[in-house]
Amino acid sequence: MTMTGDRLTDGRTADAGFGSRPAISTATVGDYIELFKPRVMSLVIFTALVGMVVSNGHVNPVIGFAALVAIAIGAGASGALNMWWDADIDAKMSRTQGRPIPAGRVAPDEALALGLSLSIGSVAFLGLITNLFAAAFLAFTIFFYAVIYSMWLKRATAQNIVIGGAAGAFPPMVAEAAVTGGVSAQTAVLFLIIFLWTPPHFWALALNKSDDYGRAGIPMLPNVAGPDATRRQILIYTLLLVPCGLLPFALGVGGVAYAVVAAVSGAAMLAFAIQVFVRRTGEAATRAAQHLFGFSILYLLLLFATLLAERTLGLGGQGAALADMLGGVLPLRVL
Amino acid sequence: MADDEPTGIVLTPEERKRRRARNIAIGLALGALALLFYVVTVAKIGVNILNRPL
């Protein structure tokens, strides 16, 4: 029998891994791009760019661009490692069973090799073009997402996305580290905003996907503590998030335009969270969670886009009163 | 078995097309990286690129 004889008529072998494993790769370029979680990557690039811009450091534009590429590749690599590790639970959830590994289009070993090699490559590249601290910070971020969050917290505790959210909040600080060699309150406050934004964002999704998470055995808050406790936690985190959204203005990172955008969009974010808290049953509850999930993305985008626009147009830093007041007390540069 | 009969795995036209697309994507990615490394090297060295013994 020739090797062609082992193959089924559709080009797949009968040996099933995740789905049926192809005899040879049938993956498209898009499948490999999907491994990198491009939507998460675009958020990482965007927040890192804002971190770089607000850092008050000076960097050659070519080096700045290359640093962003390194951070983006690191984010993509950690996405591939996450997909490799989570392939078994991804196969059980309707939202994720079409991903390249559970669908059988990419072999798990390929994703692991790609994730590891790009992780090492991106860290080495960032270290060579900027500094060792930035490289170590990027390595820690990849480790935090792939190991601390994916391998440990995600399946162990209902606080998984609270602590794991730090991984998604680090990129502005990594970008600042690449520019200045340290981190400061300028980007620490951006970290805080993304960190507090993550729980209401993901729990709004988890409220409507609790069956999915339950099937996969992931201890998301709605499955462990129940929907009502989740709605309370969403409201608490949103109440913490909205005033923190104004901190960049108080610290002089953002200007008046930022303060207006943060106040108005923060009020809207709080209104959506209250809707989720109040509407607890039926279609109204589902829609309220969907609206909060959708608006939360817009909220973060608005805050960071306004900071970027202000800095680009030279309008930022007009709200530095608190920063001046604290100047002698609070060292803005902590490293 | 005739001499001209193919042996081993024979790719279908769709598999050939996808392999070709993957090859092109890898080529473009490597080319972009090479260009990035070159531009970064010039940016890092800066004006000193001309400061060398002749």
Offer a concise description of the structure.
The complex is a heterodimer of chains A (335) and B (54). Chain A is mainly α and 335 residues long.
How far is the first residue's CA from the last residue's CA of chain A?
A: 66 Å
Global shape of chain A:
flat
**Mind describing the biggest β-sheet of chain A?**
2 strands, antiparallel
Find the biggest chain interface: A-B, 19 and 19 residues
Structural class of chain B: mainly alpha
String of helices and strands of chain A: EEHHHHHHHHHHHHHHHH
Using only CA atoms, what is the Rg of chain A?
A: 22 Å
Order of helices and strands of chain B: H
Low-confidence stretches of chain B: none
SS summary, helix count of chain A = 16
At CATH's second level, what is the architecture of the largest domain in chain A?
Orthogonal Bundle
Highest-level CATH class of the largest domain in chain A: Mainly Alpha
* Count of alpha and pi helical runs of chain B: 1
CATH superfamily of the largest domain in chain A: UbiA prenyltransferase
Q: Can you list the strand order of the major beta sheet of chain A?
A: 1-2
Mean pLDDT value of chain B? 85
Structural class of chain A: mainly alpha
Distance between the termini of chain B: 67 Å
Which percent bin holds the helix content of chain B?
A: 55-70%
Classify the helix fraction of chain A into a percent range.
over 70%
